[in-house]
């Protein structure tokens, strides 16, 4: 039996999740698949138990190792932006606690997910929670996100959950034609969420929002 209470109670109950979904709709999230995923995924199991009562606030929260779980609106926005069409093979750079991974896995238009994380303890943490949710279509790897996962590329979608100063060339190389890369780019002084789309003519880049992410760091720990 899982040690995680997936159903929740009180401030972690389904009613509280439903209120979050309504707020996301009010903020402009329109994809019904994203809204359903945000309502289905128990965010409270992806943060420390002491903070569970804050799980369905629209705020980022610490998950240890100097990392954070992104605010729900940002997760929903990135998922909606990535999933403008079906994505059979998706690379996630920065597994973190596994929350964004779980939301992607709950989207009907997302197929196989390959997720890399440079911090070993977070890989273990994410594996436990995704296993508790019986998520089947995800492979996790303790690896440097700057390198992507070349053996499994190219990918129809790539989602980066930490901010590089510049997009790593390896990620652009692993983006399939017709694929879409969602990545926050910048420094602590300012970051912009960008879309890179690979067409037959090359790469098209669009900026969509100001964001705040932890930096994308090279190497393993």
- Would you tell me the structural class of the helices and strands? alpha/beta
Helical residue percent?
Answer: 25-40%
The rounded Rg comes to 16 Å
The total beta strand count reads 9
Task: Provide the CATH topology of the domain at 59-211.
Answer: Rossmann fold
Record the strand order, biggest sheet: 5-4-3-6-7-8-9
Shape: globular
Mean pLDDT: 93
Strand portion: 25-35%
What's the helix count? Answer: 6
Plain-language structure description:
By secondary structure, the chain is an alpha/beta fold. The chain has a domain of 153 residues: Rossmann fold, CATH 3.40.50.150. Helix content is 26%, strand content 30%. It has a 7-stranded mixed beta sheet. Strand 1 and strand 2 form a beta hairpin. Helix 1 packs antiparallel against helix 2 and helix 2 crosses helix 4. The model has no long low-confidence stretch (mean pLDDT 93).
